[in-house]
Amino acid sequence: MPRLVIEGTQWGDEGKGKITDFLAQTADVVVRFQGGNNAGHTINFNHEKYALKLVPSGIFNPRIKNVIANGVVVNPKALIEELEGLESRGITEYQLFISNRAQILMPYHIDLDAANEAVLGKSNIGTTKKGIGPCYMDKASRNGLRMGDLLNLDYLKERLETVLPIKNLELKSYGLKEYSFDELFELLISWKNKLEKHIIDTSILINEEIEKDKKILFEGAQGVMLCVEHGTYPYVTSSSPLACSVPLNTGIAPKYIDNVLGITKAYTTRVGEGPFATEINDDIASYIREKGHEYGTVTKRPRRIGWLDLVVLNHAKRTSGITSISLMLLDVLGGLNKIKICTKYQLNGKEIDYIPSNLLDYQNCIPVYEEFDGWKEDITSCKTFDELPINCQKYLNRIMEVTRLPISIISVGPDREQTIVMKDVWKND
Ligand code: IMP
Fold first, then answer.
1. 12 Cβ closer than 6 Å to some ligand 1 atom
2. Which of 134, 219, 381, 385 counts the most CB atoms within 10 A of its CB?
3. Is the CB of 16 under 6 A from ligand 1?
């Protein structure tokens, strides 16, 4: 029963790209199930770097079926640019399927994202300004257009005629430029011409692959703490990257999810605003930022840095059923004298081991740390757990002890070969 979900357990940017790419080599189908081109991960393939945003990670292998499922918001312009970029670098033979139920991210969503952020002023979310929130809002308010609409021009026309007056009213209320029907319809037709061959009912495709017992990798974007349900609301994205959202966002039954791999950085980072209990702003933070290249793939913003927070990891485990951990960027911590792990918080004089839903409470949480001696050895060519320095092993063992989760993969460098596999993540225990 080889179906595996890859999920970020922190605030995104945990290194999902590397592991998805690593596991995609053995998958038959790779499915993106939420988010849009707010996500971005870098994949090193054939000694070249590729920044993928909407395109699933199996795109480099012509054998793999890549699916953009119904839970994704698709900016067709961004997708076409991404595909053209890949094609210009010789990636021309690929299998890509886009759900006819995926929402279309329109130019006005991008305008409205920026306008909302401006109105929020100091309280802004720090979005990627890619229009993600407004597009999901239109989905929920039933004013969205869907990729399948492109396949029937009469229906597309009817839908655009229905929703555009509403969107223009909204744009007007912000003092923004309104759109004419003709300019948007023309744009939609140009997108249809480029993408229609990829648009199908992907729920049918995925279920057929399940019937054939194929290996399916569900690739989440962002991380649990950015989940609209279980994250640090309102400083979250507008979708849910949790494994439990996979069935809804792809059109499969919940019983088909076998394993959930929680991708966890050996420390924590966050971009955008919002509370971050273990954040540090000292020389160690700069050391980690530079060594770990902690700058946003999409926005290039420097990421905020903090120690590993096991309260967060346990929250991710509880809300989404993580079955094992892939620990990323462990090499970045090398060279530090002391390393800390947060195991609990103190709130109003009491110890707690959960994330308060109220952000004022969360802001007041003081991390309770355990301190470990660091290691000076270079671990980037270690091939097994036993080859890792003893202090490094102690750090890993403590993570497993507190979370009661096995570490199945350890990443000690950016390349595929710099990956210690402790357990086959496709297999159930
Ligand atoms: P949005 O998804 O653009 O609406 O942004 C909402 C929040 O999620 C902001 O704090 C973003 O910085 C954050 N965010 C969105 N996508 C990513 C990602 O791929 N990695 C890390 N943070 C993200």
1. yes
2. 219
3. no
Nearest CA to ligand 1 atom 20: 12
230 is known as an active-site residue: no
Q: What is the pLDDT of residue 173?
A: 97
Q: What is the pLDDT of residues 222-236, one digit of tens each?
A: 999 999 999 999 999
Angle (CA) 409-414-420 rounded to 5° is: 25
Closest CA to 233 of 50, 357, 365: 357
| Known catalytic membership, residue 41 | yes
Same domain for 268 and 395, yes or no, is: yes
Distance 381 CA to ligand 1 centre (A): 32
**What is d(CA 5, CA 305) in angstroms, rounded to the nearest whole number?**
26
Using DSSP's 3-state secondary structure scheme, residue 284 falls into helix
Q: Which of 9, 37, 38 to mutate to test the pocket of ligand 1 (most atoms within 8 A of CB)?
A: 38
| 266/289 Cα distance (integer angstroms) | 13
Domain, as residue range, for 132: 104-195
What average pLDDT does range 97-103 have in this prediction? Answer: 98
222 lines ligand 1 (CB under 6 A): yes
Let me know whether 212 and 330 are in one domain. no
Ligand 1 centroid – CA 73 distance (Å): 14
Indicate whether residue 38 lines ligand 1 (CB < 6 A).
yes
Check: CB of residue 224 under 8 Å from CB of residue 12.
Answer: no
Q: Does 356 lie in the same domain as 279?
A: yes
